[in-house]
């Protein structure tokens, strides 16, 4: 059992330089899953999950308010790339970037997340139709929290 | 201002420790976690959890703006930074000051004052606190004069060096000119800076630190000292209070020096002043001040009965010091072992993974600060501290016996831990006698593995 923080950092660096988008490494009781941020600004790296043979699973339920992913495989969540305040429109009083029913492409700006007065645009990262907008305008959203649900065509 | 809700910008055992005191005080807690810690024990204990980013600390626990935004967004009155991560980043304290969020710790200016080694050294000198004798030298003659006043053995250090690089040990003053010439040439080649300075070399030193509390307006009290000499590559493994085998004069001089240093800064909150005790000379020198709660604070709590986190919060609220020096009484001895997920037989390599079963000791005088339960994960992104086991008793032999029993009773499966290492140190005759120096552990390791 030997995988240090430095090892993981090195593995992440190798993945970043490679042409692969995902890497799964299983060894002696740990499983390391790395996924390159293909969708939007999602760069959710490496969460350690117990391998099947490594004993009981953690007892607790997910502690955050993140809602379960939509069961429909054609519906994809657009998640918050960082923690901050969620805004649906570019400025107060302006029309929202998108409404339910709008058609979006990968690079369509769908929201703003403000962190200490710094505005970060959120792009859809997926092509399709907006079926749901989850947080209220001005709500605090966590990293990885679903913001929009988009139905992919076909 | 009464603090009703605290955002905890940390993880692991210290997050759980802070939550415990908040619950006792009726203060709500919001835990800022990375994705790797969402299912941790502290996340279950907190009133609310907000995910601030991915596992990598640089993208979560070290993001100053995100932490302050999370505090504002959750309507938290204050931020407790714990230790490590952002606890000694002036930028966090300053942003809190600007945004009207209470930072549970010193001011940004105080963090800066103690964070800069040269500045801290000059503050110590100004406060009449001894520092390691030494200084910069320009010529051989100057060096010889200084060396005679310091006394051999000496270290020649490169101004641009660090971490042991660019150092030369000189046993006899007459060898000094040649050593300086060599060190200067090497420093010029290696660091682009040929300047060197001299420092007294302490052949046998102990790491003794003093816990202080300051109200931010010049009033400072101390809560005794801690001996942290059992170290491996500057990492503390066993700490205890009181420091064994110190003369009363030396002990009270250490306390007074720590108070003088903190008073000079009008220090606010809990802090620790670290000293190197020169065993052969019976002297001590200022090393640095840590402007935060320390990992090893529970031994002080055990003998004084003071909840240091509660005092941190009271000071941050503006209540000042609720205790005066005569209120502080140290009763008995307390010793702490840091239980780490690392392999003592394989160069202390970290051993992250899943803790399939965890059973912690209990009993008279035993305290365990931990965030690990059966099924907990130890992510590879952070330090490997699993728990601190603290034993307290009226005397040192009884505290030692309790700690040994507690270590034996601890059951951890799934990851490799340093428990066997602790068992062997606690039974070592030199450690049991008390007052070991910082080279002790290397000697024990040589015997064990050599």
CATH architecture of the largest domain in chain B: 2-Layer Sandwich
Question: How many separate domains of chain A?
Answer: 2
Q: What percentage of residues of chain A falls in helices of 4 or more residues?
A: under 10%
CATH level-3 fold name of the largest domain in chain A: OB fold (Dihydrolipoamide Acetyltransferase, E2P)
List segments of chain B where confidence is low: pLDDT < 50 over at least 5 consecutive residues.
none
Write down how many β-strands of chain B occur, each being a DSSP E stretch of 2 or more residues. Answer: 23
Topology record:
The complex is a heterodimer of chains A (154) and B (450).
Chain A: H1 5-17, E1 22-27, E2 30-35, E3 47-50, E4 75-79, E5 84-87, E6 103-104, E7 109-115, E8 118-123, E9 128-133, E10 140-141, E11 146-151
Antiparallel strand pairs in A: 1-2, 2-3, 4-11, 5-7, 5-10, 6-9, 7-8, 9-11
Chain B: E1 5-8, H1 12-25, E2 28-34, H2 41-45, E3 48-53, H3 64-73, E4 78-80, H4 90-99, E5 102-103, H5 108-115, H6 117-126, E6 134-137, H7 140-150, E7 154-162, E8 165-170, H8 176-191, E9 196-200, E10 205-215, E11 220-232, E12 235-241, H9 248-264, E13 268-278, E14 283-290, H10 297-304, H11 308-317, E15 333-340, E16 342-343, E17 349-350, E18 353-354, E19 357-359, E20 366-370, E21 377-378, E22 385-393, H12 396-409, E23 411-413, H13 419-426, H14 429-433, H15 440-449
Parallel strand pairs in B: 1-2, 1-4, 2-3, 4-5
Antiparallel strand pairs in B: 6-9, 7-8, 7-9, 10-11, 10-13, 11-12, 12-15, 13-14, 15-22, 16-17, 18-21, 19-23, 20-22
């Amino acid at each position: 059992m030997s995988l240090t923080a430095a090892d993981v950092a090195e593995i992440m660096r190798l993945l970043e330089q490679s042409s692969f988008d995902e890497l799964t490494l299983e060894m002696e009781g740990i499983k390391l899953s790395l996924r390159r941020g293909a969708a939007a600004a999602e760069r959710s790296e490496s969460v350690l999950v117990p391998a099947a043979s490594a004993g009981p699973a953690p007892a607790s339920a997910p502690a955050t308010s993140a809602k379960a992913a939509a069961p429909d495989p054609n519906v994809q969540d657009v998640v918050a790339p960082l923690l901050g305040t969620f805004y649906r429109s570019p400025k107060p009083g302006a029309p929202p970037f998108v409404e339910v029913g709008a058609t979006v492409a990968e690079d369509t700006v769908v929201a703003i997340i403000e962190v200490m007065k710094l505005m970060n645009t959120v792009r859809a990262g997926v092509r399709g139709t907006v079926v749901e907008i989850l947080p209220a305008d001005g709500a605090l959203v966590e990293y990885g929290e679903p913001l929009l649900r988009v139905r992919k065509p076909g | 201002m009464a603090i009703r809700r605290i955002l905890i910008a940390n993880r692991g055992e210290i997050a759980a420790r802070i939550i415990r005191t908040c619950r006792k005080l009726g203060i709500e807690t919001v835990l800022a976690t990375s994705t790797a810690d969402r299912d941790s024990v502290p996340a279950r204990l907190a009133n609310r959890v907000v995910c601030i980013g991915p596992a990598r600390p640089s993208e979560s626990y070290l993001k100053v703006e995100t932490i302050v935004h999370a505090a504002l967004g959750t309507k938290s009155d204050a931020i407790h930074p714990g230790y490590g991560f952002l606890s000694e980043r002036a930028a966090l304290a300053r942003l809190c000051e600007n945004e009207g969020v209470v930072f549970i710790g010193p001011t940004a200016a105080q963090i800066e004052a103690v964070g800069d080694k040269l500045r801290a050294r000059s503050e110590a000198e100004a406060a009449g606190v001894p520092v390691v004798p030494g200084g910069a030298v320009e010529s051989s003659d100057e060096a010889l004069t200084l060396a005679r006043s310091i006394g051999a053995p000496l270290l020649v250090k490169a101004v641009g060096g660090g971490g042991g690089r660019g150092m030369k040990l000189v046993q006899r003053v007459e060898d000094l000119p040649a050593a300086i010439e060599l060190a200067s040439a090497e420093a010029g080649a290696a660091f682009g800076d040929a300047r060197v300075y001299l420092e007294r070399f302490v052949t046998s030193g102990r790491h003794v630190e003093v816990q202080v509390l300051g109200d931010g307006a010049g009033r400072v009290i101390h809560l005794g000292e801690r001996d942290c000499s059992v170290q491996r590559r500057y990492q503390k493994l066993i700490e205890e209070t009181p420091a064994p085998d110190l003369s009363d004069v030396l002990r009270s001089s250490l306390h007074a020096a720590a108070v003088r240093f903190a008073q000079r800064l009008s220090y606010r909150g809990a802090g620790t002043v670290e000293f190197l005790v020169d065993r052969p000379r019976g002297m001590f020198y200022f090393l640095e001040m840590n402007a935060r709660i320390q990992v090893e604070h529970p031994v002080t709590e055990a003998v004084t009965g003071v909840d240091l986190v509660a005092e941190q919060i009271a000071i941050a609220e503006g209540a000042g010091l609720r205790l005066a020096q005569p209120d502080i009484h140290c009763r008995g001895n307390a010793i702490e072992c840091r239980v780490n997920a690392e392999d003592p037989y394989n160069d202390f390599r970290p051993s992250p993974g899943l803790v399939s079963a965890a059973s912690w000791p209990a009993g008279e005088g035993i305290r365990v600060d931990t965030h690990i339960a059966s099924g907990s994960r130890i992510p590879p992104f952070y330090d490997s501290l699993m728990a601190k086991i603290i034993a307290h008793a009226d005397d040192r032999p009884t505290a030692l016996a309790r700690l040994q029993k507690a270590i034996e009773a601890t059951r951890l499966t799934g990851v490799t831990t340093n428990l066997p290492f602790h068992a062997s140190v606690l039974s070592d005759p030199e450690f049991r006698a008390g007052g070991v120096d910082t080279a002790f552990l290397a000697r024990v390791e040589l015997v064990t593995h050599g």
